[in-house]
C-alpha cells in the first residue's frame, strides 16, 4: 500500500528531527472523544428539519449508532448524554447504562436540560421567579442522581438564560441568582464529580446572556471550587475571537475542563469540526500539547456537539472524529526544539514556519498505521460505508416516526 511506504518515510523524517513516533502513536491511541447521543437523531434548524431515513429514534438506536461509530474509529468508547432524551420510556437510566455497556460504551458527560420547558421563558436559575429557580435546582440535583445511575462523573451545564430587552431584568441580580443556583448543584455533586460550565455569547437570548463568555464561566467556576471548570464550545464565540489564547489562559489557570467540538463560520453553526477552520483546531491542540510538555496538569473532556442538518449524521460524526485526530496528530508533530530555538533568537518567521510545517504534514499514513495497530481498518469512513449499517438502519427505522432533537 502506498500509505505504508509514506508512513515509513514519515517515521524516518521524524526520527531525524528527534521526534519519537512510538510516543506519538501511543498518544493518538489514548485519545478519547465523547460522542454526543443527540447528534445521531434527526436535527435541523429553527426553520425545519430534514429527515434521515436511518436517523436514531430511541435511546437504544442512539447507543447502537454510537457503538457503530466506535467500531470504526476506535477512540470514542464514551457517549455524552442529555438527561431528558437519553432515558427509557418509563424514566429509567440504569437500563441505558447497561445497554451501553453491552455495546462497549460507557456514559460520559451528563447534560441537564434547562431550556426546553415552558417554565424557562425568562430563564432557569437566573429566572426572576423563585419557583422556577427552585424547580431548576431540583432538576440539577436529580441530574446528580442520574449521573450516579449512569456511572458518569461529569456534569456539563449550558444555560439558555438571558434577557431579550434592555430593562427586562436587573443584571447584577441575575448574576447573584446564577451563582446561587450553580453553587447548589456544585455542593450536591459527589466528591469525585466535575462540573463543566459552558458559555455562549447569545442565542436563544439576544440582549444579554448570563454566562456569556469564558470570563463569566471562569468567574463562576473559581467561586464554586476546584471541581468546577470551563467548557469551551468552539461555536460559542463571536467572530475573530482567538480561541487558542483562551485555551492557553484556562490551561494555565487549571480551569480548562472540556470541549464541545464543532466548527462555525458565522455563529453557533454546529458544523463538522475541522470543516471550516482546520488550522484553528490545530492551534488549539498545539496549546494543549505545549502545556503538557511544560508539565501543566491537563485533564480535559473532549466531546463533539454538532448538528448534522444535511449530511448523514453517522458519516458526519466519523469525519469529525478523524478531523480532530488529524489536528491532534499534527500538533504532536511540531518540532518543539526548533520552535524554542526560533523563539529564543527572536526569529518570528522561523517560529511561525515551524508550526506551519507541522500543520502541512500529511498525517493520514500515521493515523492509518495507528488504526491498524489498534486492530481496526485504516479508513473508518470506507469501513462504515462498506459495512451495510446505513442501509440496515434505514430499513429498520424507516417510517417508525421522526425524532427531532436540538443541536
Ligand atoms: C447550546 O448551543 C449547546 O451548545 C449546548 O451544549 C447544548 O447542550 C447543546 O447545544 C445541545 O442543544
Ligand atoms: Mn455545546
Ligand atoms: Mn451550541
Can you put this structure into words, describing what you see?
- The chain has 407 residues and is α/β, with parallel strands linked by helices.
- Helices cover 48% and strands 12% of the residues.
- The chain is built from 15 helices and twelve strands.
- The strands form four sheets. The protein has a five-stranded parallel beta sheet with strand order 6-8-10-11-12. A three-stranded parallel beta sheet has the order 1-4-5, covered by helices on one side.
- The radius of gyration is 22 Å and the shape is globular.
- The model has no long low-confidence stretch (mean pLDDT 96).
- One manganese (II) ion binds next to loops.
Mean pLDDT across residues: 96
Computed Rg: 22 Å
Distance N terminus to C terminus?
Answer: 39 Å
Question: Total number of helical segments?
Answer: 15
* CATH architecture type of the domain at 31-314: Alpha-Beta Barrel
